[in-house]
């Protein structure tokens, strides 16, 4: 599918447009894997929390942290369906190529949104709908991509407004990036 450098460039451009050069604040990377999103966005964040359910992946991510990272980075064992963080505790959440593993993607999006402060940003990068059934067996994908409508409905259900989506065509698999903003706190 699409080269990761193209996906990452599009993600950086979208984040820059939505933050207008401001710091990302407290970043949460859900399903961090090897920690690539931490590397990509960590310098722009005041604090980074990276969560993965695999201790092996957390070890890989930890090895990529800057040497002067004391206190800025927390790598936690956890599941995307039950995040070990309080409500309204982060400013920016990333789910990069993770949502297709979820049995209940809307619940995962809701859990991510729960952790966002008012006006916080939620960014998802994943596949558009596709027919690659082999990915279910070979790579344990629970979902074969997501439509814009499905993401917009899941965002709306948890108080996040879809602000932008972007498509990156790449052979048989198209990558989509969605970015939304959590609504203001009720007064």
What general outline do the C-alpha atoms trace?
Answer: globular
Largest sheet: 7 strands, mixed
Number of strands: 7
Which sequence of SSEs, written as H and E, runs from N to C?
Answer: HEHEHEEHEHHEE
Number of helices: 6
Spatial gap, N to C terminus: 45 Å
Helical percent range? 25-40%
What's the arrangement of strands in the largest beta sheet? 3-2-1-4-5-7-6
**Oligomeric grouping of the chains:** single chain
pLDDT < 50 runs, ≥5 residues? none
Strand content bin: 25-35%
Radius of gyration: 16 Å
Briefly note the structural class of the backbone.
alpha/beta
The averaged pLDDT comes out at 91
Report on this model:
This protein has 6 helices and 7 strands; from the N terminus they run αβαβαββαβααββ. It is globular and about 45 Å long. It is an alpha/beta fold and 187 residues long. It has a 7-stranded mixed beta sheet, sandwiched between helices.
Layout of helices and strands, plus pairs?
Layout: H1 4-19, E1 25-30, H2 36-41, E2 45-52, H3 55-63, E3 73-77, E4 90-96, H4 105-115, E5 116-127, H5 134-139, H6 148-157, E6 160-168, E7 175-182
Helix pairs in contact: 4-6
What's this, in brief?
The protein is of the alpha/beta class and 187 residues long.
List key phrases describing it:
alpha/beta, 187 residues, seven-stranded mixed beta sheet
């Amino acid at each position: 599918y699409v080269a990761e450098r193209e996906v990452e460039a599009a993600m950086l451009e979208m984040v820059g447009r939505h933050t207008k050069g401001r710091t990302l604040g407290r970043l949460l990377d859900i399903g961090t894997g090897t920690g690539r999103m931490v590397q990509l966005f960590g310098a722009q964040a005041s604090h980074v929390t990276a969560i993965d359910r695999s201790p092996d992946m957390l070890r890989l991510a930890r090895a990529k942290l800057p040497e002067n990272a004391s206190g800025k980075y927390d790598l936690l064992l956890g599941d995307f369906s039950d995040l070990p963080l309080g409500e309204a505790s982060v400013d920016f959440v990333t789910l990069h190529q993770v949502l297709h593993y979820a049995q209940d993607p809307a619940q995962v999006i809701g859990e991510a949104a729960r952790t966002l402060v008012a006006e916080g940003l939620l960014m998802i990068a994943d596949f558009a709908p596709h027919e690659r059934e082999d990915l279910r067996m070979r790579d344990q994908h629970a979902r074969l991509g997501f439509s814009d409508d499905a993401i917009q409905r899941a965002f709306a259900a948890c108080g996040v407004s879809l602000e932008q989506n972007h498509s990156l065509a790449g052979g048989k698999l198209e990558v989509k990036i969605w970015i939304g903003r959590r609504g203001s706190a009720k007064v």
